[in-house]
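Your task:
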Amino acid sequence: MIQLPLSKLSHIGTTIFSQMTQLAHEHEAINLSQGFPDFMSDPELLGHAEYFIKKGFNQYAPMGGIIGLKEEIAKKIEHSHQAVYHPESEITITAGGTQAIFTAIATFIRKDDEVIIFEPAYDCYEPTVELFGGIVKRFEMQAPDYSIDWNAVKSLMSEKTRMVILNNPNNPSGRILKEHDLQELTALVKDTSILILSDEVYENIVFDCKQHLSICRYPELKERSLVVASFGKLFHVTGWKIGYCAAPKNLTDEFRKVHQFNVFSVNMPLQLALAEHMKNPDHYLYLNQFFQEKRDFLRQGVIQYAF
């Protein structure tokens, strides 16, 4: 048997999502480990997909994504967060949010660079940083409110700090960053070369009239940030694996150098379908209420069962 070189991720096994999904299948249990929507996607969106497939739009898309979809994304961001991104040079369509995160880390993290993450954290952050020789510095958010002590975060920073990774809204805690959090972060990174990777795939799942404050709302943060989002989360099509990364041109230029050798381009007919669907903002503006009704139903059932 051939002797393999030393594993680059020797301490990493199969992702917990796969493990828990397998256990759910084995025990015929409800699977809460992964975001599998138990309802159909909008028939109108599925109709768009069918239309473009049958019309023959089945070859490679442009490397950065089709312009129509990127234009709709730019409109959504400007409407939701009052931030402007140029569709052609500052938005890249990716094969899901995880690929965007992986590519951003691969692009900018070198050996011995330090990366601050906030736990609980999506399990792809740490191994991807380690894969490219980076060092993870963890800040553990504490229940019940999962607030952030920014003085403690500052103590984790050094001249080697290259990136801060945020998940906002946070999965699984549900915490959203508030105005004072983003002001504190702005002060921490001022006059540094620290980049921010902002994982905002749950931006449209915010409850009780609260507001998601994107990194891109703040000019001092926007200029150093890569914002990641997911259509799987937005339109309940997790199997389509389409997301995007929005970032200033200088960061996007570097991001695409890696993206082109990772997946190169993303599913053409589904990009066209999403572009067509997003022309009506109502298709995503209602989502907070849509998911809150489901949250309230589940919570009431848990309370009744528990008491």
Observations:
- Residues 176 and 213 are 8 Å apart (CA to CA).
- Residues 287-306 form the longest helix (20 residues).
